[in-house]
Amino acid sequence: MDKLIADAINKFYNKESTQEEYLSLCKQEIILSDSLKSYLKTEKISYENTNEDEIWPSATFRFEFEPFVNNDFNISYSSKLMISKLAPIFYIQHEFELENIDPKRTTPILDGFSTQTYSMPQQEFDAKVNQTLKQMGYNALDYQEMNEIICDLDIKTEPLFGPQITVELALFHDLLELCPE
Known about the structure:
Elements: H1 3-13, H2 19-27, H3 34-42, E1 46-49, E2 58-64, E3 68-70, E4 73-84, E5 89-99, E6 109-114, H4 120-135, E7 139-141, H5 143-146, H6 167-172
Parallel strand pairs: 5-7
Antiparallel strand pairs: 1-2, 2-4, 3-4, 4-5, 5-6
């Protein structure tokens, strides 16, 4: 496990910090930089902060790209950016969705997600976000790092997502159940 992640987990889950410090960080607002907003406007990528005005250990932004349509082929692309308030880390997930027009289909929609991009606009967006956030002192996490299990963590609350605590749960969600609903 990365030292930065291990230090943040020790700080918040091994009683090195107070509840007040935890909540103070959760109250901080994370906004996109002006250069990133300008880029999004130029590239016609719409976005929203999905947990704006919430007291939460992370900020989550959804980005919608212009869909690609060619005859019956219609695909939409989106990306999700999660920025932790507990440690200078972030995670980008790219997604796609299209109608399944196969007459023998078993599901009406085909979709998927990955840390790898599915289109050039997503790839350019990924590069811009990584460059911007790294300049601000943040480190990117990949899928394996986000889903790494944290062993020997003594949490008194029962997490909603199951008994195994991951880096995502510990540093992007309110595992301590201190944030107001």
